[in-house]
Amino acid sequence: MRCLQGLKQSYFCGMLPHPVILFDGVCNLCNRAVQFVIRRDKKKLFRFASLQSEAAAKLGKQLPIPENQDSFILIQNGKIYTGSTAALRVLRLLGGWHSLLYAFMIVPRFIRDGVYRQIARNRYEWFGRQESCWVPTPELRELFLN
Questions:
Q1: What average pLDDT score do residues 83-98 get?
Q2: Where is mean pLDDT largest: 9-13, 77-81, 90-94?
Q3: Which of 51, 128, 137, 141 is most buried, with most CB under 10 Å away?
Q4: In the 3-class helix/strand/coil scheme, how is 43-82 assigned residue by residue?
Q5: How confident is the model over 20-56, as pLDDT tens digits?
Q6: Residue 21 and residue 34 in contact, taking contact as beta carbons nearer than 8 Å
């Protein structure tokens, strides 16, 4: 695997030092999910990039990110998680009572992802869409890859 070059943080070959959440930057639901994680991530464990960003494009060239994923992706320890698995792993990493929701992993993936895909397909209709990506405040910019 080639090294990740040109991102703000200094990343190294093969693995990112923090779990990274890639999200649809124009989706209101996705932006709320990212803000939910940021408020509860007291250890500043996660890093973020919108799927529309240059950072996500660079990651996509160097990691096997599925092209059909357009809402929420978790990259952790060199592995890529999508759909309900990504969301549940993020909740587990947040700790506290949120980690209890990881118990839903016992539900077969095709059921969990079926619910996830239904929400993802309708997210703009149900939650709205922004004309441009959410811009983090200066205090939060250090958590974003670009």
A1: 93
A2: 90-94
A3: 51
A4: CCCCEEEECCCHHHHHHHHHCCCCCCCCCEEEEECCEEEE
A5: 999 988 888 988 999 999 999 999 999 999 888 888 8
A6: yes
The answer to whether residues 21 and 74 touch, using CB atoms and an 8 Å cutoff, is yes
> Looking at residue 15, what is its pLDDT?
61
Q: How far is CA 86 from CA 9, 81, 135, 136, in A?
A: 22, 5, 23, 22
Whether residue 7 is predicted with pLDDT greater than 50 in this model: the reply is no
User: How far, in Å, CA of 86 to CA of 107, rounded?
Assistant: 14
Q: In angstroms, rounded to a whole number, what is the distance separating the alpha carbons of residues 114 and 105?
A: 13
Task: Tell me how far apart the alpha carbons of residues 78 and 13 are, in angstroms, rounded to a whole number.
Answer: 10
- Written as one letter, the residue type at 122 is N
Exposed, middle or buried by CB within 10 Å (0-12, 13-18, 19+), for 92?
middle
Q: What is the mean pLDDT of the chain?
A: 84
**Structure tokens belonging to residue 104:** 């839903």
Q: In whole angstroms, how far apart are CA 64 and each of 17, 45, 107?
A: 18, 22, 26
